Amino acid sequence: MELQEKISVPIFTEVNREVFLREIYPKRRPTVLRGVCLGPCLEKWTVGYLGEKGGDKEVKIHVSTVPQMDFLHKNFVYKTLPFREFVKRASEKRHSNFFLSEDESYYLRSLGEDVRKEPADLSKQFPDLAEDFNIPPFFEQEQCFSSVLRISSCGLQLWTHYDVMDNLLAQVTGMKRVVLYSPQDALHLYLSGDKSEVLDIDAPDLKQFPKFVRAKRYECVLEPGDLLFIPALWFHNTLALRFGVGVNVFWRHLPPDSYDKKDPYGNKDPVAATRALQALERALHILEELPADYRDFYGRRMIQRIQKRTYCDCLLGTKTQDTTVHYPAVSSPNLDDSVE
Questions:
Q1: Virtual torsion, Cα 171, 71, 116, 173, nearest 10 deg
Q2: pTM, rounded to two decimals
């Protein structure tokens, strides 16, 4: 959107674990990592190969007749297909077999075996495909929360949302545009839970969402082999420029007890944040006992106190520059080159 300040996500090449942990991770900024070894998946994962390896395994998918999927208003339906048939349909622009329309779009976000208890694990749901994919060795294995297979029809756009865990989005095939917004722009995104109510980020209704123009737009296009580091709490919106396959790896960077143990998706707010929000609701309910002018006065005092105690304006620092940075290989004898 032209009215928003647009910033290109920086691209780093030849990044190993040591460089990632020293130069990229501490900044807590989205970063494209190019040239990281993802394994033979880059050459192998054709439509035919995926169908052969996934076979007739039943998968739950999203089916949409519109390009912009809206989770808040559910403008899509859930269906089940054999993986082989799903991949075939997702790679097509028009279908001879369909649920809603011959040009419907498909999206898969893989799930755990027990969807209510277990996070997605590529090695369990798709073990043959997992053998082709190298999980980047940028965190300890015990920190890994989930590895999610994502497959999308060309032209399909997913809603803007945030996750509470750091993650790497690996683009294996196809191309994807990713637009991100800083956690500090949360007040401009019209949130409903962890999702933005602004569905069309390229041509938003500014009468309904006038503050949206104040949010800075970070943008990149992922090509096959690219990794995108998405720090926790950064909002992101994806648009498949081509039929594509990716793997999304999430890991716990906070102490384990910080997370909701009943959250298999990794998108529930940390336990302390949930308690704080609940306490805020109780406080607001108490304020309702006062006349309107008193509620206004003490509400402003609460806002001032929250800002003083919690806001951290130094997080973003300087603007991201549109540059590609090349690092020489750095030997790390105590660190594995890859994690299977």
A1: -10
A2: 0.89
C-alpha triplet 30, 35, 38: angle, nearest 5°: 95
Distance in Å from the first CA to the final CA of the chain: 40
| Residue 113 CA: distances (Å) to CA of 23, 32, 56, 131, 249 | 37, 31, 16, 19, 17
Rounded CA separation 215/293 (Å) = 31
What is the maximum span of the chain, computed from C-alpha positions, in angstroms? 67
| Per-block mean pLDDT, blocks of 10 residues, the chain (340 long) | 90 95 96 97 98 96 96 95 98 96 97 93 97 95 96 97 97 98 97 95 96 97 98 98 98 94 92 97 97 97 95 57 38 32
φ, ψ of residue 21 to 5 degrees: the values are -70, -25
The pLDDT tens digits of the residues spanning 204-217 come to 999 999 999 999 99
CA distance 105 to 118: 27
Q: What is the dihedral of CA 269, 271, 275, 277, to 10 degrees?
A: -10
Give pLDDT, residue 315.
55
Cα separation, 340 vs 335, in Å, equals 14
Give the Cα separation of 117 and 98 in Å (integer): 31
